Amino acid sequence: MRYTILIVPGFHGSGPAHWQSWLQDRVAQARRVDGIDWERPVLADWAAAVGRSIDAAPGPVLVVAHSFGCLASVRAAARRQHRVAGLMLVAPADPERFGPAGLRDQDREPGQQSVAAHIPDSPLGVPSLVVASTNDPWVRLSSAAYWADRWGSLLVNVGAAGHINVDSGHGPWPRGLELLDALHATCDGLPLGSINERPGQQAAAH
């Protein structure tokens, strides 16, 4: 099946030396989400922009997200299981680091709200990968594993790879392209729609 590959960068965006830009140059159907202020990580705004890009795509979408973009992508994809074929979520940022209006204060007061309550806490319903590192400054591996479990995602531990960005040496990233190819192959064998539904329910939905 032919998919639109939707690239969703994280906080500060992904510049020309970032692996997302490298991948975008190598995949014919890849396009980058637009309508996002990369310096203002506001979950509702980012998720709305991702949702608009999914809705505007000519066919089913594979999402390739990084960092805070992962949080926006899972929120947008949760209600679009018949548009989103799969998600590759690389170095998802810890939702506890962000509030509804952006980054939370380092010395936050008890009770200050995070965006954890505003992202899915149950299986996403489509094939997904969470690609995580053992020394990511934006999220502990245990937190990435927790969210992978909640979302029903396959956790891929790539070792000591930092935040899997330019600073950690991830410009050209052949392993990332391999993971996307593997996700693509998995999705090719499945109909669109929630994989949490029984086969009869999926057929009825189509």
CATH class reads: Alpha Beta
The poorly predicted ranges are 201-206
Q: Separation of termini?
A: 17 Å
CATH fold title: Rossmann fold
Could you describe the largest sheet, including whether it forms a barrel? 6 strands, parallel
Q: What percent of residues are in strands? A: 15-25%
What CATH architecture would you give?
Answer: 3-Layer(aba) Sandwich
Biggest sheet strand line-up? 2-1-3-4-7-8
What is the average of the pLDDT values? 91
Our count of helices gives 6
Report the helical percentage: 25-40%
Coarse structural class? alpha/beta
The number of E-state strands comes to: 8
Element-level helix/strand string: EHEHEHEEEEHEHH
Shape: globular
Domain module count: 1
Mind telling me the CATH superfamily name?
Answer: Alpha/Beta hydrolase fold, catalytic domain
3D architecture notes:
The protein has six helices and eight strands. The protein has helices spanning 19-26, 43-56, 68-77, 141-151, 174-188, 199-205, and strands at 4-8, 30-32, 61-66, 84-90, 98-99, 102-103, 128-132, 154-157. It starts with a strand and ends with a helix. It has 206 residues and is an alpha/beta fold. The chain has a six-stranded parallel β-sheet, with helices on both faces.
Topology (SSEs and partners):
Layout: E1 4-8, H1 19-26, E2 30-32, H2 43-56, E3 61-66, H3 68-77, E4 84-90, E5 98-99, E6 102-103, E7 128-132, H4 141-151, E8 154-157, H5 174-188, H6 199-205
Parallel strand pairs: 1-2, 1-3, 3-4, 4-7, 7-8
Antiparallel strand pairs: 5-6
Helix pairs in contact: 2-3
Protein name: Alpha/beta hydrolase
Keywords: Hydrolase
Pfam family, one: Ser_hydrolase
